[in-house]
């Protein structure tokens, strides 16, 4: 692409800038105003980058309405926000019968159930619409909220009231009842709506799901009222009294209260019955009259659901079994290399646009260089060893909202002279060497923060929802500020107002920002100076440091300097080890890190690497100096084990180790894998060996499993 920009004449460049301005303006409108994105984020980014590259070469051609000066549309306003009293989570996916059997096995393993113990599941269609939470107080519908980011959604109560399937008044309902379900549109209603829209010269929708989303999120509820929306109830949030003892019982109760429940909901006595019900639903899929994209299985017994609980974003007691991916063939027009947050070079297929399952696809992932060459993760041939070349006729598939992939290549249609793809060994963005470490399928840019692609991806990660989540400062705005040179690293965000103090003036003069949104942005940034320790750690974008490990670290270390000095000490030891003098595990700091449950060697090495890289460390410290970091609040401060460090050892008989750990953490305890002077309590089951002995030697309180259950009030 850069070459192509280099070869443009001035006249061509001016035309191209005009074309890009138009394309990007349309994309912005489709995304922000119409709820109907027409191009993917990656394509959008690519257009933006191309525009910036041309402007950089021909500064005098920069247009008055240049897309570079637009920080993206301000976030959708108009609806008030509602915070969900119980977060609205998503579901883990299963793609094969084997995954379903594994799901059953994992539930049994967590609960410590034998493989022949009875365990029932419900199975029901996964509706392809948008989820909506309905809150009833004393039988009256008081609010309706979209899922939003899972924690906060939009208040669409007035619109929900216009949907016939949603009762506004219930009799015999619990005083507080929050019903959850899916808003959708039938195929017939969708076709008729599009026909009406077309006739009236209004925009049409790409698919029933977009039509349902666009119709529900109308600022004028009288428009929603004219749209044929429907609703299936399938779950619940807060309740003042349980609906039933089982999932099936609860759904039947919702039906009795007047909600529509899906008629294909069945009770299954195990994975084989679930798989059979899946086949039945799949058979009926084409004639149901509305879109579904899989089958959801849920543990039926609600007590067991409660014990299983949640991972960070999905319940352990449910899974979505997706229908097979949709396929299409098209031409591979080019292979671009994108550089990610951790320097990974990812090959992206540029495709001749093709419709796959109702969506136009023009980009797909090619994973890594081995994948292009026809090799799998284990070094063995895939696709019969066929490599992928620019110009090839390739098969593209997508499953649900997963990024499309290139699966196969038709050698009979390979153009003459097509050359094997040569994967770059230098970063296409900063020209630093890109290397592959032993055992890593991915080639990585070694430029660190000097690589603009890594720096900008780190910034985008920093502002993402699970990290700093600054209202009005999303990925697009972060990228814009980066390109302008206003924000190069996270710390700059918090100095934006100080540095551009008149910044308000500068910001609000730019298109897309007014007085109010600029002031709001600075307020939103100021608000996030106070940040949870775990969010900060996750936001740093350190490789292998995910949300849950960030929590594990934040739970263990009281503050930033405690963590940093432990990592530094582990670093010294590692350096010694590299010199061949000491073994890795002898460092007390290294052992302390490794003993944290959820923290493994790969992460410890990665932390050490990040903290000992001078540039990166300096960037961390600059940021930390500007923040008010909140220690991770013990989950339940009034529990008798809150803040205590607990070690489980030996065999537990009433629950598995995984369940014991998860429950202890919910109660605010830290669970560690090894006994040390910092351990407060050891729970020892039969067969406990050296750990129990060490606890005794150190005089640490030791309980058996019943003692533990009594302590946490569950005996
Ligand atoms: S249960 C804790 N049941 O799928 C999660 N979800 O990928 C409870 N969905 O956000 C969700 N049909 O919007 C459930 N029968 C069904 C569903 C369903 C569609 C959607 C829902 C959820 C998403 C998760």
Low-confidence stretches: 71-76
Instruction: Based on Cα principal axes, name the global outline.
Output: globular
For the residues shown, what is the average pLDDT? 88
Bound molecules: 2-(butylsulfanyl)adenosine
CATH superfamily of the largest domain: DNA ligase/mRNA capping enzyme
Please work out how many helical segments DSSP would assign: 26
> What is the CATH domain class of the largest domain?
Alpha Beta
Q: Kindly identify the CATH topology of the largest domain.
A: D-amino Acid Aminotransferase, Chain A, domain 1
- Portion in strands: 15-25%
Helix content: 25-40%
Helix-strand layout with pairing:
Elements: H1 2-6, H2 10-33, H3 41-57, E1 81-83, E2 93-94, H4 97-111, E3 121-127, E4 130-137, E5 140-146, E6 152-154, H5 157-160, E7 176-184, H6 187-199, H7 208-216, H8 221-225, E8 230-239, H9 247-256, E9 266-268, H10 271-284, E10 292-299, H11 302-308, E11 318-322, E12 326-339, E13 345-356, E14 359-365, H12 369-373, E15 393-398, E16 405-409, E17 434-436, E18 443-445, H13 452-462, H14 475-484, H15 490-499, H16 503-508, H17 515-527, E19 530-532, H18 533-539, H19 547-556, H20 560-578, H21 588-595, H22 601-612, H23 614-625, E20 628-630, E21 645-649, H24 657-666, E22 670-672, E23 681-684, H25 690-698, E24 701-703, H26 705-711
Parallel strand pairs: 2-11, 19-20, 21-22, 21-23, 23-24
Antiparallel strand pairs: 1-6, 3-9, 3-10, 4-5, 4-7, 7-8, 10-11, 12-13, 12-15, 13-14, 15-16, 17-18
Helix pairs in contact: 2-3, 4-10, 13-14, 15-23, 18-19, 20-21, 20-22
The structure holds 2-(butylsulfanyl)adenosine (IVH).
């Amino acid at each position: 692409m850069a070459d192509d920009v280099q070869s443009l004449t001035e006249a061509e460049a001016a035309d191209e800038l005009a074309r890009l301005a138009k394309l990007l303006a349309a994309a912005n409108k489709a995304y922000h105003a119409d709820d109907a994105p027409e191009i993917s984020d990656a394509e959008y980014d690519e257009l933006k980058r191309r525009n910036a590259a041309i402007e950089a070469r021909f500064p005098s051609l920069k247009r008055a309405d240049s897309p570079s000066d637009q920080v993206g549309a301000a976030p959708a306003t108009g609806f008030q926000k509602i915070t969900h009293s119980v977060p609205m989570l998503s579901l883990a996916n299963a793609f094969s019968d084997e995954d379903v059997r594994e799901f059953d096995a994992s539930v049994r393993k967590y609960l410590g159930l034998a493989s022949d113990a009875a365990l029932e599941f419900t199975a029901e269609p996964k509706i392809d619409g948008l989820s909506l939470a309905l809150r009833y107080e004393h039988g009256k519908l008081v609010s309706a909220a979209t899922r939003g980011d899972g924690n906060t959604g939009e208040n669409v109560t007035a619109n929900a009231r216009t949907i016939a399937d949603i009762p506004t008044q219930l009799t015999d309902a619990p005083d507080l009842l929050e019903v959850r379900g899916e808003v959708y549109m039938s195929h017939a209603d969708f076709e008729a709506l599009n026909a009406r829209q077309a006739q009236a010269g209004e925009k049409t929708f790409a698919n029933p799901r977009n039509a349902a989303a666009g119709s529900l999120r109308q600022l004028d509820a009288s428009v929603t009222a004219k749209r044929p929306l429907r609703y299936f109830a399938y779950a619940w949030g807060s309740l003042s009294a349980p609906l039933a003892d089982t999932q099936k019982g609860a759904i039947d109760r919702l039906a009795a209260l007047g909600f529509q429940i899906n008629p294909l909901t069945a009770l299954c006595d195990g994975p084989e019955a679930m798989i059979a019900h899946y086949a039945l639903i799949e058979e009926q899929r084409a004639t149901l009259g509305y879109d579904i994209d899989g089958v959801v299985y849920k543990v039926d017994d609600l007590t067991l659901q409660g014990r299983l609980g949640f991972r960070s974003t999905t319940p352990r007691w449910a899974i979505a079994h997706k229908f097979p991916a949709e396929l299409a063939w098209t031409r591979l027009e080019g292979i671009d290399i994108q550089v990610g947050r951790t320097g990974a070079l990812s090959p992206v297929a540029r495709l001749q646009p093709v419709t796959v399952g109702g969506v136009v696809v023009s980009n797909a992932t090619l994973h890594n260089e081995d994948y292009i060459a026809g090799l799998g993760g284990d070094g063995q041939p895939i696709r019969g060893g066929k490599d992928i070349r620019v110009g090839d006729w390739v098969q593209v598939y997508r499953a649900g909202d997963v990024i499309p992939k290139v699966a196969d290549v038709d050698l009979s249609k390979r153009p003459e002279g097509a050359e094997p793809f040569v994967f770059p060994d230098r970063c296409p963005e900063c020209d630093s060497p890109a290397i592959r470490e032993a055992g890593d399928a991915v080639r990585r840019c070694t430029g660190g923060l000097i690589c603009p692609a890594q720096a900008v991806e780190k910034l985008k990660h920093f502002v993402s929802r699970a990290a700093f989540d600054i209202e009005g400062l999303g990925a697009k705005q972060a990228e814009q500020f980066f390109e302008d040179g206003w924000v190069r690293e996270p710390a700059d965000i918090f100095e934006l107002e100080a540095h551009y103090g008149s910044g308000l003036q500068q910001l609000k003069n730019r298109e897309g920002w007014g007085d109010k949104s600029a002031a709001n942005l600075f307020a939103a940034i100021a608000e996030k100076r106070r940040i949870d320790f775990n969010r900060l750690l996750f936001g740093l974008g350190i490789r292998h440091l995910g949300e849950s490990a960030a929590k594990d670290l934040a739970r263990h270390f009281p503050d930033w300097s405690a963590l940093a000095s432990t990592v530094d000490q582990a670093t010294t030891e590692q350096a010694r080890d590299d010199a061949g003098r000491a073994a890795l595990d002898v460092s007390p700091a290294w052992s302390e890190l490794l003993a944290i449950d959820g923290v493994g060697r790969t992460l410890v090495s990665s932390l050490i690497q990040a903290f000992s890289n001078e540039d990166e460390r300096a960037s961390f410290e600059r940021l930390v100096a500007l923040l008010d970091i909140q220690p991770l609040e013990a989950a339940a401060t009034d529990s008798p084990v809150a803040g205590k460090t607990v070690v489980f050892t030996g065999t537990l008989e009433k629950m598995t180790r995984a369940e014991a750990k998860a429950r202890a953490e919910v109660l605010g305890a830290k669970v560690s894998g090894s006994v040390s002077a910092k351990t407060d309590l050891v729970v020892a089951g039969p067969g406990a060996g050296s750990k129990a002995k060490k606890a005794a030697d150190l005089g640490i309180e030791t309980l058996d499993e019943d003692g533990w259950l009594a302590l946490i009030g569950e005996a």
